[in-house]
TrEMBL record:
Bilayer disposition of the protein: Peripheral membrane protein
Keyword match Electron transport: yes
The protein's name in its UniProt record: NADH dehydrogenase (Ubiquinone) 1 alpha subcomplex 5
Classification via InterPro entries: NDUFA5 (IPR006806)
PANTHER family per the UniProt record, alphabetical: NADH DEHYDROGENASE [UBIQUINONE] 1 ALPHA SUBCOMPLEX SUBUNIT 5 (PTHR12653:SF0), NADH-UBIQUINONE OXIDOREDUCTASE 13 KD-B SUBUNIT (PTHR12653)
Gene Ontology annotations for the cellular component aspect, listed alphabetically: mitochondrial inner membrane
Family assignment from sequence similarity: Belongs to the complex I NDUFA5 subunit family.
Keywords: Electron transport, Membrane, Mitochondrion, Mitochondrion inner membrane, Respiratory chain, Transport, Ubiquinone
Gene Ontology process terms (BP): respiratory electron transport chain
Database matches in Pfam families: ETC_C1_NDUFA5 (PF04716)
Subcellular location: Mitochondrion inner membrane
Claim: Transport is one of the keywords in the record: yes
Amino acid sequence: MLRATLPLLSAIRSIKASTGITGLPAHPDPLPALSHIYASTLSLLSSIPSTSVYRQATQAVTEHNLNIVEKAKGDVASVERELGMVEKLIEAAKEEQNLAGKMLEWKSWEALEEEPRPNQWRYFDPGNE
């Protein structure tokens, strides 16, 4: 029954048949899904202190991408010109959303439970050769 309606649906809006990437199916309606994931990620990030470098960086990228998706007004091709394949963006946004949840759980912005040993991170000093 669905096969009979597919030509009608295709006439209304073009559906990408394949992403060309094994294991990554084409999304039937990617922009609303992407907007929802970005909004959810921003909601999670708002629970992290604004002084957190992770929040600042992730929020800036997520807001930038969300702004591009909203300005596209449903035009998948324009989003793909700006940001790349939308299916990859959806996967990356889901992963970032999961990481934001983990960062909230881990409270990575808090001080260390134990003081680091002296010179523990000295190898990160540029003059240490």
